[in-house]
Amino acid sequence: MNKLHILLFGILLLLAACADDSDVEESAEEGTATEETADEEITFSLQALPSSLDPHAANDGYSLYVMTNIYETLVKLNQDLELEPGLAESYEQVDDTTWEFILREDVTFHDGSEFNAEVVKANLDRVRDEAVGAPLEFLFTEISEVEIIDDYTVQIHTNEPFAALPAHLAHPGGHMISKEVIDADYAQMEEGGDPLTEVHKNPVGTGFFEFEEVVEGDHVTLVRNDEYWGEAATPSSVTFKAVPEDATRIAELSTADADLIYPVNPSDVEQIDSTDGTYVEQNESANMTYMGFNTEVEPFDNADVRRAIAMAINKEDIINEMLEGIPEVATTPLNPTVNGYSENIDPVEYDVEAAKELLDEAGYGGGFTAEILVRDRTTADIATFIQGELEALNIDIEINQMESGAYQEYTADGNHDIFMGAWGTVTLDADYGLYPMFHSENIGAPGNRTRYVNEEVDTLLDDARTETDEDRRHQLYEDAQQIIVDEAPLVPIYHSVLLAGLQEDLTGYYQYPSSFPYLKDLSRE
Asked: What pTM was computed for the model?
């Protein structure tokens, strides 16, 4: 049977299709919790709690950090960053527009209901249902039909060839939810309720942890799924706490009130590393931190104004003076870890005098006032640095800090002038790094918070989605990146290194480049 592996190698990843006559191997050993499984209770302090526990509703990091422990996907990335079967036992591409998935027959949801082909169809139909209005619909718009072949076989048909489909199915938007909870959500919608509410209240997946409770604004607790189809999790529970202040998270780590904290500000790495019993784990990321403009409002509807501002920001000084030299300078929207990243992009060079001339030519040499929106200490510090940089252009920047949930809503609705943002290319494929952020169909919550519209970029990204020749696909993404860099709807500032604070006796921690923490194997020495 043919198989397609999308291999993502190291820093510069290649997408390769390969076929042979063997089945795709199973990715996990079957088993359940045993008496030997540790009873470790883990406390994980995060900057914020999930905005939703519905995989079709939320695309912010803090939601995904929790949900990846509750739910599972048909396809998953392993720790070698290779795509492999997850809830699917095997999969293959049977023709240009059809993928077939053979499902595991030994999987049940936390509510006892069965995982089967009907469940897969219900999930993929729901995330694409316009009546539901899932923000993550964009991941699956190329799907035309989900066909049930038998109880444990589904075929996913696409409108056109779609090379990124397995990678998209590995995204948390492809998490499988209990059909009984999906049905309950539709039932309350029929009675006049809002969509995407029932699953948040009752998140039921197949994962190695299951939901126990949420105390809004305080914590979410998950407990080990002792009926898990694969090898059981080591910790008996994981409690995610909301701790917005960096100093408070560090204090909790130092007093062992927290086993893990995330994120860690680069300026705090030395303090944590020098504290007895704690250290900072550093991992490469697929993230890009940027300063984005609302391209629908003056003067940021003018590409020359945006480009002039980009030319006036010294990214290396930001990294060296404020971030301890840890991140890497970003010149394009894609991190080097992402398949589709190109070294051939002509960047916007730092040149204050040229920026002044360009701004004057655009009619804004006298300057103006604008607001920049931030959501945490790191982005507030960077905004303060940029505020000082832009004084040379007579631009007066006012900094406004919001908590994460309000920030998400504010920028999704387009109420901002400028904002500090971040994007993680979770699938490690350029489609996810560019399509949601820059395609005009995704303005707002799906990812295009700069509200950027360019018909040529739309066409390039659409064509790349269906291109099967890998070299041609990469060229399309390179062309799109160059236009985006030239028109500067956002200013890529740096590619972050993932920094998490841990107790020294804690082992088994892993963090994907997407920034998702893998907590299944946590234990103490």
From this structure: 0.78
Return the structure tokens found at 272: 């944590």
Tokens in use for 329?
A: 């300078």
Q: Look at residue 119 and give its three-state secondary structure.
A: helix
Q: Which domains, from first to last, does the chain contain?
A: 1-30+71-192 (3.90.76.10), 207-281+506-524 (3.40.190.10), 287-495 (3.10.105.10)
Which of 355, 385, 353 is CA-nearest to residue 372?
Answer: 385
E-strand spans in 116-193? 143-150, 153-158
Q: Is the pLDDT reported for residue 43 higher than 90?
A: yes
- Helices H, strands E: what count in the chain? 15, 23
What the block records as the tokens of 167 is: 């990678």
**In terms of C-beta density within 10 A (0-12 exposed, 13-18 middle, 19 or more buried), how is residue 388 classed?**
exposed
* pLDDT score at 32: 42
Report how far residue 126's alpha carbon sits from residue 168's, in angstroms, rounded to the nearest whole number. 16
Q: Output the six-digit token pair for 67.
A: 């949900």
Cα distance between the two ends of the chain: 43
Q: Are strands 490-495 and 287-293 parallel, antiparallel or unpaired?
A: antiparallel
Write the burial class of residue 431 (CB in 10 Å: 0-12 exposed, 13-18 middle, 19+ buried): buried
